[in-house]
Amino acid sequence: MTAHKTGRIAFQGEPGAYSHQACREARPDLEALPCRTFEDAIEAVRKGEADLAMLPVENSTYGRVADIHHLLPESGLHIVGEAFVRVHINLLALPGTRLDQVEAAMSHTVLLGQCRGFLRQHGLRSVTGADTAGSAQIVAQKGDPKLAALASELAGEIYGLDVLARHIEDKSNNTTRFLVMSPAPDETRRADRMMTTFVFRVRNIPAALYKAMGGFATNGVNMTKLESYMVDGNFTATQFYADIEGHPEDANVKLALEELRYFTSTMSILGVYPADPRRP
To answer: Which GO terms describe its cellular component (predicted)?
Structure first.
């Protein structure tokens, strides 16, 4: 890993966001730097204001974080790690508030959707906020015991709120996968289980994708993710994003990537990094 210069890791959101939790869990040695947007978090690393960026790519309940797939290849940054973070949702309120005093819960739409059962059971009205930690901040500022927030325990800690109910999410396996991004690639083999992420476009020939994928099957390479998305809003320009288990220097991975290059017009590796211990 490259030497840290600023001692900071950038994330999108307010202090107390789940991305902040990911920074604390995966890089406790670094100071977390909140940024307004994903682009701002990437820019902070590019400008040297932070050494790394922590970016969410997918959630087990809601699927991929859409913007990120477009930003990653254009960012000029490289993936040097991944972090799986268990998203526990908590009901946070002003200190001393009782659950029966609360009438409404504020959070990001996604989190409100993940706690429908609890909200229905307690007759709580949903109030849409810009994000989770921002909602906790608003609850702290408003000083109204009738309004609570759905957020992380870290957000409660930061904004001085009480946890009225813990882990109230409908699905008990709710997990978000984050990628740790750096200005410099690190392709050293630093774990037994390594991952490789790359993007590619196939050549305009019949069954090109099928042929391009064939090399991974015949060489026994496990592809854990393959997604397509349009480039520049153009229906004909499709880029594919893939994660595979293994290191580019592994004999079977090397053969599979050689075969892939034959059927693609462009292919670039976004990162080689250790698999998170919590990866299935």
So the answer is: cytoplasm
**Global model pTM greater than 0.85:** yes
Task: Please give the class, per CATH, of domain 90-165.
Answer: alpha beta
If one looks up domain 194-274 in CATH, what number appears?
3.30.70.260
Strand ranges in the chain using DSSP code E only, listed in sequence order? 8-12, 31-35, 52-59, 63-64, 78-86, 90-93, 104-107, 125-128, 147-151, 162-165, 175-182, 194-202, 223-231, 234-245, 264-274
Task: Output the CA–CA distances (angstroms, integers) from residue 248 to 196, 252, 257, 260, 263, in the order listed.
Answer: 7, 9, 8, 12, 18
CB 44 within 8 Å of CB 11: no
Q: What is the pLDDT of residues 4-61, one digit of tens each?
A: 689 999 999 999 999 999 999 999 999 999 999 999 999 999 999 999 999 999 988 8
Q: Could you tell me which CATH class the domain 8-87+174-182 is placed in?
A: alpha beta
Q: Are the CB atoms for 99 and 166 separated by under 8 Å?
A: no
pLDDT score of 244 more than 70: yes
Residues 102 and 150 sit within 8 Å (Cβ to Cβ) = no
